[in-house]
Amino acid sequence: MNDQQELRELLQQIRDGRMNVEQGMQVLRNQMVQDLGHTKIDLHRELRNGFPEVIYAEGKTPRQVGEIFGHMRAHGNVLATRVTSKTAEHVLSLFPDACYDPLGRTLTHVHEEPSPGRGKTVIVTAGTSDLGVAHEARTTCRMLGIPATIVSDVGVAGIHRLFDQMEHLRQATVLIVIAGMEGALASVIGGLVDKPIIAVPTSVGYGAHFAGLAALLGMLASCASGISVVNIDNGFGAACAACRITRLLGQKDHAD
Amino acid sequence: MNDQQELRELLQQIRDGRMNVEQGMQVLRNQMVQDLGHTKIDLHRELRNGFPEVIYAEGKTPRQVGEIFGHMRAHGNVLATRVTSKTAEHVLSLFPDACYDPLGRTLTHVHEEPSPGRGKTVIVTAGTSDLGVAHEARTTCRMLGIPATIVSDVGVAGIHRLFDQMEHLRQATVLIVIAGMEGALASVIGGLVDKPIIAVPTSVGYGAHFAGLAALLGMLASCASGISVVNIDNGFGAACAACRITRLLGQKDHAD
Amino acid sequence: MNDQQELRELLQQIRDGRMNVEQGMQVLRNQMVQDLGHTKIDLHRELRNGFPEVIYAEGKTPRQVGEIFGHMRAHGNVLATRVTSKTAEHVLSLFPDACYDPLGRTLTHVHEEPSPGRGKTVIVTAGTSDLGVAHEARTTCRMLGIPATIVSDVGVAGIHRLFDQMEHLRQATVLIVIAGMEGALASVIGGLVDKPIIAVPTSVGYGAHFAGLAALLGMLASCASGISVVNIDNGFGAACAACRITRLLGQKDHAD
Amino acid sequence: MNDQQELRELLQQIRDGRMNVEQGMQVLRNQMVQDLGHTKIDLHRELRNGFPEVIYAEGKTPRQVGEIFGHMRAHGNVLATRVTSKTAEHVLSLFPDACYDPLGRTLTHVHEEPSPGRGKTVIVTAGTSDLGVAHEARTTCRMLGIPATIVSDVGVAGIHRLFDQMEHLRQATVLIVIAGMEGALASVIGGLVDKPIIAVPTSVGYGAHFAGLAALLGMLASCASGISVVNIDNGFGAACAACRITRLLGQKDHAD
Amino acid sequence: MNDQQELRELLQQIRDGRMNVEQGMQVLRNQMVQDLGHTKIDLHRELRNGFPEVIYAEGKTPRQVGEIFGHMRAHGNVLATRVTSKTAEHVLSLFPDACYDPLGRTLTHVHEEPSPGRGKTVIVTAGTSDLGVAHEARTTCRMLGIPATIVSDVGVAGIHRLFDQMEHLRQATVLIVIAGMEGALASVIGGLVDKPIIAVPTSVGYGAHFAGLAALLGMLASCASGISVVNIDNGFGAACAACRITRLLGQKDHAD
Amino acid sequence: MNDQQELRELLQQIRDGRMNVEQGMQVLRNQMVQDLGHTKIDLHRELRNGFPEVIYAEGKTPRQVGEIFGHMRAHGNVLATRVTSKTAEHVLSLFPDACYDPLGRTLTHVHEEPSPGRGKTVIVTAGTSDLGVAHEARTTCRMLGIPATIVSDVGVAGIHRLFDQMEHLRQATVLIVIAGMEGALASVIGGLVDKPIIAVPTSVGYGAHFAGLAALLGMLASCASGISVVNIDNGFGAACAACRITRLLGQKDHAD
Amino acid sequence: MNDQQELRELLQQIRDGRMNVEQGMQVLRNQMVQDLGHTKIDLHRELRNGFPEVIYAEGKTPRQVGEIFGHMRAHGNVLATRVTSKTAEHVLSLFPDACYDPLGRTLTHVHEEPSPGRGKTVIVTAGTSDLGVAHEARTTCRMLGIPATIVSDVGVAGIHRLFDQMEHLRQATVLIVIAGMEGALASVIGGLVDKPIIAVPTSVGYGAHFAGLAALLGMLASCASGISVVNIDNGFGAACAACRITRLLGQKDHAD
Amino acid sequence: MNDQQELRELLQQIRDGRMNVEQGMQVLRNQMVQDLGHTKIDLHRELRNGFPEVIYAEGKTPRQVGEIFGHMRAHGNVLATRVTSKTAEHVLSLFPDACYDPLGRTLTHVHEEPSPGRGKTVIVTAGTSDLGVAHEARTTCRMLGIPATIVSDVGVAGIHRLFDQMEHLRQATVLIVIAGMEGALASVIGGLVDKPIIAVPTSVGYGAHFAGLAALLGMLASCASGISVVNIDNGFGAACAACRITRLLGQKDHAD
């Protein structure tokens, strides 16, 4: 990773006496946080928890998103999530080479395609209506360099559609299972597959579904062991959790 | 049914002038409601909605339950539900031939075994911990004259246990599906079987299960069509719903 | 039923050696699931749980609904529920012979009127505002071949309106009781009629009604025995539950 | 009322110069609030909102209740509510002439029977299990001088039991309707009777009843007009509300 | 009351043999319920619980409201509540003499001003934002013939504004107290005034107010005795409850 | 303070006999409450709890806000909160010198800049999306004469951004900590700084955040001692709480 | 403060070369955190946020509490909260000079009475049942060196009891207002007093009070400006919040 | 794994014709599910999702647990969770070599120590009160053959205790973060470490913590990316999720 390389050099310069401590502090601080007034862009986040900073567009004005997008774009790839079409239009007018996915509501700028990591993430949805969340997850995976594919519409109301896909599912390194309604798909897959499963409840449903609460509680109370859950409709978070897992695969200290 | 027979005769006597209206009123009223002060026993309920009155023991003192039990026992079979062991002891000391099931918490007096009706009710449970509710349902079925059997511990965490029982399930007239945790069993069976399904969420689970709320919401939001739900832990109600259905089978006007 | 006929023939061909197992698998799989990329249409669902697949339009784009509608239309009757007027306009522009009911928000294509089954379903509403849900239920009944009529606006605030209709209600095979506010209508009818009752809470009400929660909890906690409940505003589900019941009537093994 | 008499004399003494303002203040203050350290007994509350102070025993230690009971007993009648049997034992050991009702959990000392006011309050319960709340209401009525009777166990599951009592109910000045489960009794009575109705939801029920929430929401969302509701299990509050109403009857300025 | 007069004559005709029972039934039934297909107008509701039927416009289409309005208008005064401006426009285009109050969202037709009853209802609001609910209450009072005035904006944040109005409040027969936020106004007035108090929580507030839940729970849990509560924002219901109370004042059997 | 000065003179006039009691009452009452019909403007509120009256615009019509704004403007500075852009336009058309902040949704008229009090309030936000609430707080501080600055976007996902600002935070007299999502920022700052901390949960977040509930519960349950919390999104309330604290600093009786 | 003194000396030794950095680190680490295996006692917490570590006994076994109590006792004063009588017995058997308050459930060891700070904290309770929480707050104040007194039982149901105490309340530096039921006391005091107010909702109440939820929501939604709230029953937290405020009073940089 | 070995041999026998299909079916079925009447022990679960069946003791009687324990003990290692001390006593009386951990409430029989897998799981707790859940997690890890250690009592109220342990945390393969109160520890660690994080909310807390709800919602809404969550107090589930992850490490197809 580029960031780590630069950091190591800087520290070496300090150690060798080519730079004094105060100068080093100054350089580091400038590199790490770019202050736009309303927002502090955290450029070195990747060094700490392994994720580049992402623009969470909800609650931000189109102008704010555009400004942050521009600054981050100058440093490399950019991912913005929860982008309304109105905000997308504004940003696209500034940066016509950005790419907007209206179903997943993501806006991306790919300066350089992330080099694909190890492992295979399979994103499974219970119904067509869950596809938006699946798209958010897949785009996030791509930006994090995780190979990912979507298997859609295999909910338990027609359980043979799921069984048709079992071979595919069993080959996954990590499974992201996205379901609204009662969220039973996570339990069923959890009982059949021994891989890490990240369940995403969606707000698809009505009445006593209470905007995703039914699926959320169901997944948390699942009778299948070892399923973990992220927030309702949080395709982005599920992809990040998958990334935390697949990153383990290439690490020497575990694999030998 | 006995009750209907008696009623018809009475009305005939009035029509024939053998009894005047006021006398008839008196007789009917006395027969219908027996007033114990704290409780009005509704002896003719069976005439209206087809269910004999049942003692719901929760919130009643042992003495109250004992008194009502005694009065109803003089008219035929008795079923009391939600009976604590303390109340059961009191009633058994008064009527040693009553029968207490500590798992299902029912107390019964069977004067005459109800003649078995048509149809076959299969009571399915997801786990061993749901057995108490299944017992309440089975005892209620028996008192209503519905043949019923229990298939226990076939939850979706080990879905092949369910598939082993599919033949059995497909032969049912009505299915009562009892599950705690996320309640996914109802959805899976609902997708595989075309018979009436009454789902009973149970309070088995912990944490975000919120005493049955997760299973309840999950069953209501089920992606399988045509599942209907009764209250949490309500084995009694599920059996009554099954009874309303199986009673249809013997009725001439529908069957030809 | 057509589907079953075709299936039997296919299996016979395999048995007779006219088709080998692999070919049979291929044919079946193709027939069963039609994969549109975003959606897997489950054409054989009817074989398993007795319901043809239905388009749940909420959360789907007009284009997705149009595409699925077109594919299913090629195989027979189509029912889409929760269709907004905007989506309806799009589909009608593609298939002008489709039929949209704005009150029940259903969109249908009737290739061949389903042959009417046995039994009589009566749909009862507490108030005029519950009519949309009743329409969804009635249209679903029609598509499933269940004779159904609506009795509207007989809520308990004017209980004599209900009593005027008792004769009508008593002749039903199954009752679907639709009520918002406190949902008391289900309890009252449940105490007066001995037929299967499927209660549908509606989101009609305000304030402490919490979008149907008051009616839902009230119906679940009903003091009348054997009422079962479907999700808030779920007229479709209630009709399916009624269908699971009325289908029992024509079956030989129960009726003799 | 005694209190008002004393107050008038005092003010007259001040006006006549027999007592100066500071002395008057002193006397009044002493009379009004008796300070026990942990509790300030509000002896003149009756002058303001018409209710004598009542001991709410929940969350108070037996010793605290005993001490307050003793002080109030010295000034006249005493009513304590939510008294556990343990606290009752302690107070009875101090004041053996106090009277404990274990069902309604009230503890009373009647120095002088309150002279009965006008109007007739009828307390109606849906089931036997609601009797405890009805007792609390009746005892409170008695202490406030309101004639009150209980009609118990007339819930809507057997609606003819209610119709048998309609004549009785129509003669009431005020109705207190106490019901657990779905609380439908309040709606039904509200549609049949034109008198003030105070609905009391009770915690009788289980599962999705959520300790009275179902009945509370149902009564608030009732389709019958003009029903007002007090807190779950609050028989005391319902009696006070009835008292505020029946007190109007004797007042000259309204009645002519 | 007109309705009662007509009914008495009819019964007398039957008694005198001028009309037979079947004819009488026919006349009554026709008079009582006017069936518009979607709605059964309950013309005799006033005979039973004292309230004329009112149009609850929420969830009804403008056309439905217009149709019902027209039919009821032919029989006398009309009150419709929860009327959106869009529906109001439609009805006003049909019946230009109807009167719409956009703040209280009521639509009325006054054929004959109801003769004012006894008693004085004072409607108190905590803040200006609660005025819409107060208007709904006042219009309902007027249509029921109850004299009513509004005292607005006297919430406890400036408690002296309340004390300035105490004299006014003490002269009321019934108080309707309308408050959002924490709803404390009901408790404070309840501690100062001995008249019947109907508390109306409003949805005014934000965040943890949860659309009226905070005020509702606060009023139910009020430390002041004998306050009863109606649904959130339910000015109409509060007026009906006041009406049930003030009607008592003119009745002979209580007042002497 | 001006108000107190005027009041003291008035009382002196009464004491000196230059004005009689009734006249004094009249003057005071007029000064204190200005009655606009729908609203009683509480001009002397500052005398009681130290805050000038503020216009809470939510639920008020543009015209009402304009009218109140005009009356208060005649007496000095004005602050209106929760002002929609539509209402702002209306008021600005009447009073073009008013100032609207669309992010914080405040509308102000500054007749005379409040003289700055003691102490330093630092407003900290977890993310850019919390800035609107921070603006409401800062504007309120300014109108109350409290020096305040904003430190934005230092949430715990990049905890070093917070540590960079620790020096700044430690110099504060009072900290207002504004955070959505899980609200963890309040706990972390609470563990590091010993100054008064007022936590403001915001509605920024989605899914299981439930419009601020997650942050609210998290802040209330914080493991850091002595954090107190105001309502969701309540920047105004937080500033008032800060004002109650900083006002203590100049008071003689505490400081020596 | 002792801790700061020791720390300064240590750093001076390092600066003077009397101790090297590694030794200093070792000493500091040892002093700061004492590791008991299950618990890390944070002895220097006082340096960071001004509060000595306190034992939160809920969820800890008597043995664990005893062990932690013993270790902290060796370093000075100790405060344990939420101590059951069973745990208290165990600890008292080990350290007979510890002091247990069963009402407030605190267990203390006072090695040296904390020197009293500036300011005056007044703890106000609405009812006698809130006294336990008030005791917890007062004991915490004492251990933190804040002068504090309790004014109990002045709830708004008898508002003159509150007005009798206004003079007392106005002299407070900080007010802790403790109330269950609807929690209206906080709003009323907030409208009358201009000092910092920390509101503590209590779990005193029943039914729709939902274990403190009604009071909590009411206090958060209070119409009085600038009230801040701590968790239900959290007397300890309220005292800490008061401490954060009163500590400001003696600080030079603010007071001149 | 042993199970897989046996299965392969069986299938080979069938392929080689040494066993016919029906015999194979019989053997498999017998091996897979052992039916105790109330419970079907799923002996081959390990083949499907990689977890041996575990006894969830909540809601089971001591006798049932004892019986299942005995049967599973005959096949190898046994783990029972949520075991009350009463049940433990019963089972220990039957199998004195079983091992009970009262803090974690697990009961185990270790026939053969599971051979330790790859990777290192670090279990972190915020407070001493969370230790029970940590014990459940650690025991589960041990039974699944995952090396695991506990780092306890490093909550964010004393954030330096956490920083002292960072080196330790960074060396983990997977982190299980267990926290009650507001659950902020998960967010802070998530921002600092790039490994998979499984967050476990606990029911430690009170009042507005609502038995773990505050921590659960906070963790789901966490601002740190890629944290996934299991049910409240579910140490067992967290260990299983960790197991699903660490099992990936030894698999050839990923590691090269």
TrEMBL record, chains A, B, C, D, E, F, G, H:
<feature type="domain" description="PurE">
    <location>
        <begin position="119"/>
        <end position="251"/>
    </location>
</feature>
<feature type="transmembrane region" description="Helical">
    <location>
        <begin position="172"/>
        <end position="193"/>
    </location>
</feature>
<feature type="transmembrane region" description="Helical">
    <location>
        <begin position="205"/>
        <end position="227"/>
    </location>
</feature>
<dbReference type="GO" id="GO:0006189">
    <property type="term" value="P:'de novo' IMP biosynthetic process"/>
</dbReference>
<dbReference type="InterPro" id="IPR039476">
    <property type="entry name" value="P2CMN_synthase_LarB"/>
</dbReference>
<dbReference type="InterPro" id="IPR000031">
    <property type="entry name" value="PurE_dom"/>
</dbReference>
<keyword id="KW-0812">Transmembrane</keyword>
<protein>
    <submittedName>
        <fullName>1-(5-phosphoribosyl)-5-amino-4-imidazole-carboxylate carboxylase</fullName>
    </submittedName>
</protein>
<dbReference type="GO" id="GO:0016787">
    <property type="term" value="F:hydrolase activity"/>
</dbReference>
<keyword id="KW-1133">Transmembrane helix</keyword>
<dbReference type="Pfam" id="PF00731">
    <property type="entry name" value="AIRC"/>
</dbReference>
<keyword id="KW-0472">Membrane</keyword>
